[in-house]
Amino acid sequence: MFIHRLPSIVPSIFPSLIWDKKADAKENQVYFTFDDGPSPEITNFVLEELDKYQAKATFFCIGKNMRLFPDLAQRVHVSGHSLGNHTMNHVNAWKVTHEDYVANKIACDDVFLDLAIPSVGFRPPYGRVNRAIIKKAHEWGPIYMWSLLTGDYNASLSPLSISENCLKNIQAGSIIVFHDSQKAYPHLKVILPEFLAYCYDNGFQLSAL
């Protein structure tokens, strides 16, 4: 069974990571986030759908993709959305040395500097962290996790099951993970319009982190 919403005990074990924004959510704010881009067809689709609702979101970008598509990264930025670091090469913290992981994260920071785009913070690929990464939180700034993981990349899920399991759990302060990636696109193009309409109809304001 896919876990869309983590048990409440998990955030309590890692309180230095940001799991939601309930404490300072105003006007029923909800936070859509998109991992693994930018990717031309998919990121453009996302931006167009967000524009229909004057919604703002946060894009946790892979550095190598920002290098490949700098104009698209700039489009995200000038459209009023925020961008964050998702490492240079989508590195799994459990499969590389800490030194290599830090170097990959810093390489992505350098891309942000080169493109003159501010980074809102960091999201570890796969949501995988370790003690050494958590200790870096005070140096790296905000490390964003999530309230709801749509699982849009998971081919074993259906768009209907994603909507049924996630929409009922959206509340003020929720941080929701989508992916603007080729792998997720078959599901994303179905569920994103549904999520946007649901939030609009229920009075949620979609904001960037």
From TrEMBL:
<protein>
    <submittedName>
        <fullName>Polysaccharide deacetylase family protein</fullName>
    </submittedName>
</protein>
<dbReference type="Pfam" id="PF01522">
    <property type="entry name" value="Polysacc_deac_1"/>
</dbReference>
<feature type="domain" description="NodB homology">
    <location>
        <begin position="28"/>
        <end position="207"/>
    </location>
</feature>
<dbReference type="InterPro" id="IPR011330">
    <property type="entry name" value="Glyco_hydro/deAcase_b/a-brl"/>
</dbReference>
<dbReference type="InterPro" id="IPR050248">
    <property type="entry name" value="Polysacc_deacetylase_ArnD"/>
</dbReference>
<keyword id="KW-0378">Hydrolase</keyword>
<dbReference type="InterPro" id="IPR002509">
    <property type="entry name" value="NODB_dom"/>
</dbReference>
<keyword id="KW-0479">Metal-binding</keyword>
